[in-house]
Write a structure and sequence with these properties.
This protein is α+β, with helices and mostly antiparallel strands and about 500 residues long. It is about 35% helix and about 15% strand. It contains 13 helices and 17 strands. It has an eleven-stranded mixed sheet, sandwiched between helices. The protein has a two-stranded antiparallel sheet with strand order 4-5. A two-stranded antiparallel ribbon has the order 6-7. Strand 6 and strand 7 form a beta hairpin. The chain is globular.
Amino acid sequence: MTLPRELLTESAIELRRLIGSKQISPVELLETCIERISAINPAVNAVTATCYTRARQEAKAAEQAVLRGDPLGALHGLPTGIKDLEETAGLLTTYGSPLHRDFIPNKDNAMVARVRAAGAIVVGKTNVPEFGAGANSRNVVWGATGNPFNPTLNAGGSSGGSAVALACDMLPVCTGSDTGGSLRIPAAICGVVGFRPSPGLVAIERRGLGWTPISVVGPMGRTVADTCQLMAVQAAMDDCDPLSYPIDARQFATPLNCDLSQMRIAYTEDFNICPVDQPIRAVFRQKIAAMRHLFKSCTPITLDFSEADRCFDVIRATNYAARYRAAYEKDPKSLGPNVRANYELSARMSLAEMAWAHTEQTNIFRRFQQTFKDYDLVLAPTTPVSPFPWSQLYLSEMDGQPLRNYYHWLGLTYVITLTTNPALSMPCGNDHQGMPFGLQVVGRFRGDHAVLSAGHALEQAFAAIPELRRPRPDLSQLQQPTPALTSIVTHPPIATD
């Protein structure tokens, strides 16, 4: 038995309330989500390996727990997608790489275990670029993920599958992670919410260089409130992550009171360094004009990120050197072009360059924190262009000018990665091409709760402003498969549950 399809548009928080009050069954919700995945996923290719048999067993157990009156977790009975970079017990985890095409972990990693302990029912994995490299979720294991507003276009990455599954109401809860923008970019161009938390707030097990804060795991959601709900489950100290620290994660479930009329807002089109397409600059100015009346002040700001590109190159490459040296030396062709490019960049670097980069990141961090003596938030676009075709692996030029490398177009997000400040990408109407526009909201150092709370207040305000409210894809246009999305797969099909 399934539920009315319109229930899938409800927030994760509302669905959890309906489960807890016995108005809907976890079994019925799961079957409705599976039905939606079956209908829509062939058009967008967001959900990869699935475990429906196990999920059905867990949904029945979740239903019985409700009927018995057992204490219920924050995600009890909610069907969930896990990004295919996170190891899941008994469920194929490929990292989007043929090297892991048959890898089935025997345990959940730390973050997945917390999500499951909160009652979430893992339904399947969500698509990624190979090893999360780049912001186009395509690989030779599963193929490409198409944008829900136009499947011929890029869905972003590396959490692209999660963003699309949320946008298409296939699953109410999905996880993500972020190095140079992997939570924020797909959220922006798919019309959902992605939050990059402060390093250490959500313990991450798979970061090889445990003391380096470049990569984080974090929440996504259709709304800021849903994102807060998942954050309240994910945040925790764990011995697997040397950057993690004790935190009462329950605080994130309830946004703080946030009076936008008292907030001092700074905004920037490009952080004075990032390439941004001229039409996106114009759209961003229009968005600022439509929202500035909400704030006490709203002021353009000049920032010093002059060495950020080179700094990010080195720090990112150091991580790739640590993780992929053995695979590269054994067979460079076993790695895709983006991963190879990162490793080869690292192989040319010296110890002196690495020392300089970490010193410069510290300088960037300290300079940026001075901004918050005068302002409460910094606003910027999340992405510098409207989504381009997924068949184009990455953006090589902008406004007729060549870009430095395959990830240079991610500058708007990776400069904030370097600062380690918490950053939210939230829907902010459409761009000049009618595609979703993402607003990046950056807060104070360790000010995660405040950023989420401000995002919640902005979301409520934007709902009353037509040009700022969240756009939704037309699912009726996604009823037919898009065979081209799986055309880049170079191996026989993988059998999944």
